[in-house]
Amino acid sequence: MAKVAGLIRKKSAYFYVRRIPEEVRSLLGGKQQITRSLNTTDFRVASDRARRMAAETDKIFADARLGKAPSAAASRGVTREQLFDAARLHLYNLERRTTDWGHTSPEAAKEIIQADLANIGSPHEEVWASAVQPVTAKVIKELGLELDRGDRLWFEFASLIRRAEQEHLERELSRINGTIGATATDALFSNTFAHNPPPKLSLPSGLSLGQVITRFEKDPTRGHLTESAGKKYILPFAVLREVVGEDKSIGEIARTDCAACHELLASLPRNYNKLTEFRGKGLRELAELAKSSGTTLLSQGTVQVYAHHLSAFFNYAVQKGIIEHNPASRLMSGQPKEGSSRLTFNNNELKGLLAELPGWAGNRRGGRFWAPLVGLFSGMRLGEVLWLHTDDFQTVDGIEAIVLRRTDDRSLKTRGAARVVPIHAELKRLGFMKLVEDRKRTGGRLFIDLPGDDQQHCVDMFQKRFSYMLKQKVGVRAGVSYHSLRHNFCDGLRNAGSPIDVTRALGGWARSGGIEERYGQGSRPAVLSQWMDKVTYPDLDLSHFHVARPDQPEVS
């Protein structure tokens, strides 16, 4: 990917830097350059954001040359009533959390609470401020309150947070004494209890679209999401900016605006950001070029994903109390669905893959050789397979298994993806466990021969090469990919008569059936292993892979 002009890297983060032409500096605060953080460490995400920012900056400069100063961001004041609501919401959240005193005796717990009450209730600000002010700053950030530290309202809010903390401690003391009732010590919180509906924080909806997008991107409660999740919002946000304009109040965005965004998404050409003839063009211009040239458009499935993320953004604004309803909900309803884009490998395609596998793997039993086989005989997702570590292989319930869990350098798609995956007997016959034992001597990643700076980078590089091989060498149908192996595995479980709870446990799908599935921890690994070994592909002959030949050395 070509580097974008103005995109620079400082330490681990990316910034967009642009020199301001001398003739328009007076309208832009007299500054000599614009420097904006792109809020990412990923080069690809930074490139997309820098291109968008470059287009926005071009418009600012063009307007300035006509004598038009950039519009100032709409201010959003915070009223005292909203601060009261925010303090009540803070107490509500405190009350919802159950304090676990562990082995601490009731008397010792009382002493701890009374000491905290003495500090927070002190008449001297220097005593209670060190405990209350960090909490105040955290609440302001979480709720998106526009309060500058040091101004009068900031300190008023700190006093309200102090009262909420005091009320919580008083109630905690009453609970330990066994005298808790439906009354509040502080009248401000007379209706704030964990068993009541949460207090509603009614913030004004005068925020501009651009302000809400910025808040969404920086929201600390979304910090657990991966970079790839954030990427899916880049195009919907770009379309919103082009159709609506980021200075428009988000409360004024109507369903007709969202419908126009949806139509523009559906009119964009496929891979427009990778083709030179489309570079530097606005989205509407891209749609016109695609229409006139007959270029293949984004698939309906892709448009549906973007429409979903458009709706998710407005849902976020609703949940934060910024707007009352979601104008982008159910944009895709009533449209015919495409057939599944994830087909299974048919018998000929599977045989062709196995025939090409040794050569594609360079006649070495490394990651290229094992990744498709592990996918076929475990149903694991590509990211799960490629980023396996040697300590994921454990003996559980007397069987050899892969224990998948989320780690600092490995993400899992869903909560259900954290699971125990027994090693299929066929993988053992193929010699997979020998590779595992060899790797355990040094530890770390299992497939150290597969390149990639992180999990997503490794997946991207492998996926491109694997898809090319499937298309050029095996000649698979459109829609057949590595993920199709997961579908083959699921069909194998069905053909073996696997119970639905076993299928979900092995595949990492969340339990979503009747009420009975919500009880218990699920089937034991030993039971899962029995069903795992029943997955077979009768038309495949893998016996020639069972013993490594001399021309297939292990990767060192």
Explain what this protein looks like in three dimensions:
The protein has about 550 residues and is mainly alpha-helical. It has helices at about 45-65, 80-95, 105-120, 125-145, 150-175, 210-220, 225-230, 235-245, 255-265, 285-295, 300-320, 345-360, 365-375, 380-385, 425-430, 430-440, 455-475, 485-495, 500-505, 525-530, and strands at about 5-10, 15-20, 35, 395, 400-405, 420. Helix 12 (about 345-360) crosses helix 17 (about 455-475). The protein has a 3-stranded antiparallel β-sheet with strand order 1-2-3, with helices on one face. Residues about 70-75, about 335-340 and about 510-520 have low confidence and may be disordered. The protein is globular. A hairpin with a 2-residue loop joins strand 4 (about 395) and strand 5 (about 400-405).
